[in-house]
Design goal:
Elements lengths: L14 H19 L5 H39 L4 H5 L7 H25 L4 E3 L3 H38 L3 H13 L5 H6 L4 H18 L3 H17 E3 L10 E3 L11 H18 L4 H6 L7 H4 L6
Parallel strand pairs: 2-3
Antiparallel strand pairs: 1-3
Helix pairs in contact: 1-5, 2-5, 4-9, 5-6, 5-9, 6-8, 8-9, 8-10
Length: 307
């Protein structure tokens, strides 16, 4: 019903091309304009010029602003609601958001502590109370907006639009996952680790897409993504990561692209899907992931109202 519910409303499918087209155009331009540029060195220069927190805000605030653009476009151009863009339920289930956020936050904290004690030589304590406090405030303000923009663009706006256009579920799942991965191609991590890390980004997009389709809503993906970026940024930074932060720890190890990149995709994400499936009693996986978008019966339309 997450995609099907839109069939009640007369939506011009062409309107789903505007924002993705503009955003993808900006990504392509950014990639071409930075090709051959040492993005890690560029980040260091930027940090020297406006500081760590200034660089963080400069990188994150445009994406936070784009969330407002997506929501405005959805409301006033497509005459839709945030609720329909977010979920097939009668209202947004914030318990789902917080459960997903808490589960991934706990996992991130535990694995960070284990990594620190297993290889303390790979880290230095980066904790500076005053700077960390300022960063916490900035991160809480901006990171959820940044991650929500990516979710509302890829797993909501684009996934719903492609679902309506193709009458399928697997096509929007694959396409949005691929584009989500490609969005990160200009990240400093790609320069440092190579193109193999794109498997992680695309795999993460696939995981978040499966969450959305199986749960018939965006809540679990919103919680996971916010926890991944927010808690990760608060705990660990490095000289070669996209987020330069006043975190508690700094990773000083020499990064390398090895089998560890595939552990989340092949092991951790499937375990999380199993946990969510048990908790929320998911069933009919084949239909929800690979089925067609079928017309909704008239009686089903009656239960779908614009907020």
């Amino acid at each position: 019903m997450y995609i099907e519910q839109l069939q009640k409303f007369k939506i011009n499918l062409w309107t789903y091309l505007v924002i993705p087209g503009l955003f993808l155009g900006l990504m392509i331009y950014n990639y071409i304009s930075t090709e051959g540029v040492d993005t890690v060195a560029m980040m260091k220069d930027m940090t020297k010029l406006i500081g760590v927190n200034g660089t963080f805000v400069a990188l994150v605030s445009p994406l936070a602003l784009m969330l407002l653009i997506v929501l405005f476009y959805n409301k006033f151009i497509q005459n839709n609601t945030i609720r329909i863009l977010t979920t097939s339920r009668s209202k947004i289930d914030w318990k789902r958001v917080f459960f997903s956020f808490g589960l991934w936050s706990l996992f991130t904290i535990v694995t960070t502590v284990v990594s620190y004690y297993a290889a303390p030589e790979d880290f230095v304590v980066n904790f500076k109370p005053e700077k960390f406090t300022v960063f916490v405030i900035l991160a809480i303000l901006f990171v959820p907006l940044q991650t929500s923009f990516e979710e509302y663009l890829f797993r909501a706006h684009m996934l719903q639009g492609l679902g309506l256009a193709t009458k399928t579920r697997w096509i929007p799942l694959v396409v949005t996952s691929f584009l989500f991965g490609i969005m990160h191609i200009a990240n400093p991590e790609v320069d440092k680790l190579g193109m193999v890390i794109m498997f992680y980004y695309i795999g993460t997009g696939l995981f978040l897409g499966i969450l959305t389709l199986m749960d018939e809503g965006l809540e679990l993906a919103l919680g996971f993504h916010a926890a991944n970026n927010l808690v990760g940024a608060l705990l660990v930074t490095s000289d070669w990561s996209a987020f330069q932060t006043h975190s508690i720890l700094k990773d000083v190890s020499e990064p390398s692209a090895n089998f560890q990149i595939f552990i989340p995709i092949l092991v951790i994400f499937p375990i999380l899907l199993y946990i969510f499936a048990i908790k929320y009693k998911w069933s009919n996986w084949k239909e929800k992931l690979f089925g067609t978008i079928k017309p909704i019966e008239v009686k089903e339309f009656e239960s779908i109202e614009r907020d």
